[in-house]
Amino acid sequence: MFARTTSTALPALFSLLLLTLFTLSATAAPVPAPPSVAATGHLLIDFDSGHVLAENNAEQRLEPASLTKIMTAYVVMKEIQAGQVTLQDQVLVSKKAWRTPGSRMFIEVGEKIALEVLLKGMIIQSGNDASVALAEHVAGSEETFANLMNDHAKRLGMANTHFVNSTGLPHAEHYTTPRDIARVTRATIREFPDIYQWYATKEFTFNSIRQHNRNKLLWRDDAVDGVKTGHTEAAGYCLVASAKKDGMRLIAVVMGTRSEEARASESLSLLNYGFRFFETHRLYGAGEKLTDTRVWKGSQERLRLGLARDLYITIPRGQYPNLNAGMRIDPQIMAPVTSGQPLGTVSVSLDGESIVETELVALDSIVEGGLVQIAKDTVLLWLE
Fold first, then answer.
1. Does the active-site annotation cover 126?
2. Which of 69, 78, 120, 228 is catalytic?
3. 95 — phi, psi (to 5°)?
4. Is residue 111 within 8 Å of residue 207, measured between CB atoms?
5. What's the pTM?
6. Is there a contact between 72 and 108 (Cβ–Cβ < 8 Å)?
7. Is there a contact between 317 and 53 (Cβ–Cβ < 8 Å)?
């Protein structure tokens, strides 16, 4: 519930709306330090809020090996979404795709294979041959496809990432970071939930050859439903893992561990830490009215305000009763107003420490009023 109050501590340019979400006091056990992770770099984040729960060298440029295929699959899915290709497309296998070294789906030169089958072969079996075949079908060549990958990386804010191929085979200019690979993973889960389910598939058979998913956590924890392993001699053993428990989804990235077992155990250690000591809550929904405010010289006087996106927060377990939220609304809002226009901020704090601040936006559009309304409001503004 929202209670309107005033405060002299804020600048006169803003009006203040304090929202006391909870008045109870809770004493929670302190959150211990994250586990030590034997990896070159790692990151643990909450999927919904993006809150970082543990990290080390999360901005360090590292070889991603087959973690690259998370972006390869994402680009293919974006092209499907745009209507450029379909899951039913018959993809002609080139000699280059067939000869690609490393993990294989075992496709043959000259075969025509449904794009859906190749995509599953890349996601589940980590087929390098499937990755190149998909890249060539989507963009004409793997080099051009890599440009698409970099375009999407830039759009997603992956500032320390550069791709030169679709497979993750070693190259001096092919790199990413734990934080960047988490970004494309979040985008994949959020934008393509139906296809994301394929990452939980434990085995896949093609040409009578059955291969298992290399993500050992799919067998060890029922909450784990992805995402992707990677390994080269230079990159070490890597894993992006995601799991969901009681509505809370976490993403763990470990890069540069010493073995298959290490990448699995270190990832599970991070996930268990996050689920044990933190909780995530959806505070407000996108488009939900949080309050309304006066609009001057418009076709109507009241304007609904809310958020453009759902607002999630991740906090230590047991601290939910100690949350407080505050709202600032711009003064003297004049028509016209466009839906989605920022007109203030909503901030959430825990024990006086800010957790998140996001824009408060108009939920409706209001055009300028008639001459009578404009004249009336002009006089009222003079009297304020």
1. yes
2. 69
3. -65, -35
4. no
5. 0.89
6. no
7. no
